[in-house]
Structures are given as structure tokens and as C-alpha cells.
């Protein structure tokens, strides 16, 4: 890899001041790490996929009207064309004619991770008792986390060729070890 994980974290912190957007990036990173083992080549893909999750919105806080051009340009300058392509694909899949598994995984993890995190925030016990069926029920409530594209959530799983409930479970499992640091543990902490 041309960049290190530390380089990716530094870039995220340099360009992203919003704690909520940093949390989202860390959540998508966790989901992408888990996805690398389920949909990719495991350890061989984990770091690249994690950095795609971490950096996919790194320019949004400072330059929302230019997103994702700035982070894509930086990744390309750093010699990371695969991550750059995944970031382009997460924003505009039609701009990438041949989506790779990494591209599809980022598409599938981004919106869903944000939605799962939102579900945790309204539950007294946070992520602890969250199930795919409770997430799917919330997806039907158009007023809840209204900015999350339901089409992106369902199309993401479809593109990967996986069952939505199984993919939701993957995201829940990925976020659970990070519940405290991401603020997903709920009020009833043990």
C-alpha cells in the first residue's frame, strides 16, 4: 500500500472537524474491515477496505460542494487508485463502469452503517439488543433518519449479492466492539 493507516487517519483529522462525521467514518471503517473478511480476501483486503471506509467522506466537511473530488485527487496522488475508485463509486456508482467488490462493499456499508448507528442512538440499550429485524422495521419509517437513502441501503446489498438481513447483521457485529467509542452503547451501560 502506498499510504499507511496513520496517513489515512491524519488526512481524516486534517480535513474533518465534525465529530459526527468522524464517528461515521470510523463506523464505516469498522464495517468495511468486517466486510473484507466476508466479501473480500480477508486479511489481504482488510487494510485497504478499512481505509476506503475511513476516507470516503474525508473532504465533505470542508468542501461539501466538491465532494468527493478532493479526497479522490489526494488518493490518486498518493498512489491509491483502488481506494480512489471506491470513493468515486460510493458517491456516483454510474461513474464507475465496472464496480469491483471493494466498490460494492463501500456502497453497501456506507448508508447502512449510518442508519444502524442512528438506530442505536434512539435505543436505551444502544446496539446491545439491535437486530436486523428492528433495523428493517426502522427502514420502513420514512421519517426516521430521513436523509438516509433507503434505495442505497437495499441496492447496496443487492449489488453485493447478499441478503439484506445478513448484511445488516454484519454491520451490527462490526460496530458492536466499538459501541462505547462511537457512542452506540446506550444509556444502560453495564
Automatic annotation (TrEMBL):
Q: Which organism is it from?
A: Aquisphaera giovannonii
For this protein, the record's SUPFAM superfamilies field holds: HD-domain/PDEase-like
A Pfam cross-reference name: HD
Q: Which residues form the HD domain?
A: 23-111
Q: What is this protein called?
A: HD domain protein
Query: Coiled-coil stretches, from where to where?
Result: none
Q: Which domain of life is it from?
A: Bacteria
